[in-house]
Design a protein that fits this description.
The protein is α+β, with helices and mostly antiparallel strands. Helix content is 40%, strand content 22%.
Length: 449
């Protein structure tokens, strides 16, 4: 093994990472294991891997080394653009984070000497963790460390779908690594592929995204292997779903975002009451008023103790009416109402909660604070993106109050707290979402709503 070849392979790998937009945050040599450790990405969003000196020394001269490295870098870089490169969606509906504990371990298993890769898995919605080990042997069919990581991640996803993964509170220390076995992959049908892509886009692009709605990379070869299909089938399914209005075009031809229609259909639990279904044909001028909102909260809370209220107030709307006239103002309000109705869907009911038509609300049974905040952010962001006032910007200040974060179960108190959250959004500069309870660091400003 030549030191020159090692240095050339190391530099070549670094160049490939940087060319893909992946900064090398850490590069350390493990002399005991004759390996190089890398952490790539950014401080807040990164992943890591470890390769041997032999791998790097032979890198430029070995075709499959270069190929598997390029495939790994391409996949990581594409996921990195949309969020964490360690985020994956499972067919069972879970969004998980998978990180490898380096280096690869070795020891005795069933009286045989073997290598084992250790992976920590997190449920992105609950934050609970699971520790798992996967034996590296004949089942992996050889390949580089990059091939091993892909196979291990997909084996873990399959085990998650089979209900074999136990997620526990990370504050409960359990340094026990459960062994996960690989299983045969049954190719999915076109309908199953489309359902997977809808679920992936909803979960990774909306429910767990840092700033929803976020782009999602559709043509991930790791997903293709996991589903037993080709990347071409993923691409065809994506186009079909865009045509159906469930996905929207993203930053590039292989990226999508969740549409309002998808958000409406992928609710955590759709209420079955006719009172929600009846609103699908409702128009803005016939919205129920505050009194009915209070009655509905009182009616639903006994059956849906976990519920949320969102209050939306268009910013400086009187100025818009004065500048554009009342006809343009009514058209703007109608568009805002349609945005709210499309996003809320049948998961909740919409009301007029203030004196003006620019004050609307949504009551969402079975929604937590975190889930309601995502809906609120989607509403606020869509109002901005749709340019309701054409050349005159229209934004909204939004407040959220849910029963998992307030001790009061009084309808009046829930509305009051959501109203205070709206006022806090105004105080903070408008065009934002505030969740009750909040901490005020400055003195209250004059109410200019």
């Amino acid at each position: 093994m030549s030191e020159t070849q090692f240095q050339q392979g190391l530099e070549d790998l670094r160049k490939r990472l940087i060319a893909a937009g992946l900064n090398v945050l850490v590069q350390e040599e493990d002399f005991d294991r004759q390996s190089m450790y890398f952490k790539i990405g950014s401080a807040a969003n990164n992943t890591d891997f470890m390769v041997s000196r032999n791998f790097l020394s032979d890198f430029q001269r070995t075709k499959n080394y270069v190929q598997s490295t390029n495939e790994y870098i391409t996949a990581v870089a594409a996921r990195y653009k949309c969020g964490s490169p360690e985020h994956f969606y499972c067919s069972s509906g879970l969004a998980i984070r998978v990180s490898v504990r380096w280096p690869i371990q070795n020891g005795l298993y069933k009286n045989q000497y073997t290598n084992v890769i250790l992976l920590t898995t997190s449920d992105l919605k609950t934050g609970n963790d699971s520790k798992n080990s996967i034996e590296i042997g004949i089942a992996f069919g050889g390949g580089t460390v990059f091939d091993i990581v892909q196979v291990a991640v997909n084996a873990l996803r399959a085990a998650t779908d089979a209900g074999e993964i136990e997620f526990v509170d990370p504050s409960t220390y359990r340094d026990v690594w459960r062994r996960v076995e690989r299983r045969q992959v049954t190719p999915r049908s076109q309908a199953e592929i489309e359902d997977f892509l809808c679920g992936k886009t909803f979960m990774l692009g909306f429910m767990v995204a840092a700033a929803p709605p976020s782009d999602v990379w559709v043509v991930d070869p790791w997903d293709a292997t996991y589903l037993g299909v080709t990347t071409r089938q993923l691409l065809l399914a994506m186009r079909s779903l865009i045509a159906k209005g469930l996905l929207e075009h993203g930053m590039g031809p292989e990226y999508v975002k969740p549409s309002n229609k998808l958000l409406s259909e992928r609710s955590s639990e759709t209420p079955k009451s006719d009172v929600f279904q009846a609103q699908q044909n409702l128009i803005r001028t016939k919205l129920p008023l505050l009194e009915e909102l209070l009655r509905d909260i009182a009616t639903f809370l006994p059956q849906h103790p976990l519920s949320a209220l969102i209050l939306i107030d268009l910013d400086h709307f009187k100025r818009f009416n004065d500048a554009k006239g009342h006809l343009a103002g009514d058209a703007c309000l109608d568009k805002a109402f349609e945005i709210i109705k499309n996003i809320v869907g049948r998961r909740g009911r919409i009301y007029k909660w203030g004196q003006g038509g620019d004050e609307m609300s949504a009551f969402l049974p079975d929604f937590s604070t975190d889930e309601a905040q995502l809906i609120a952010e989607r509403i606020r962001n869509t109002i901005v993106q749709e340019k309701l006032g054409n050349d005159l910007p229209v934004t909204a200040s939004v407040g959220v109050c849910a029963t998992d974060k307030t001790e009061s179960k009084s309808p009046e108190e829930i509305v009051r707290q959501a109203d205070q959250a709206v006022f806090e959004s105004k105080r903070r500069g408008r065009n934002c979402v505030t969740v009750w309870p909040f901490t005020r660091t400055d003195s209250l400003a004059e109410d200019t709503r």
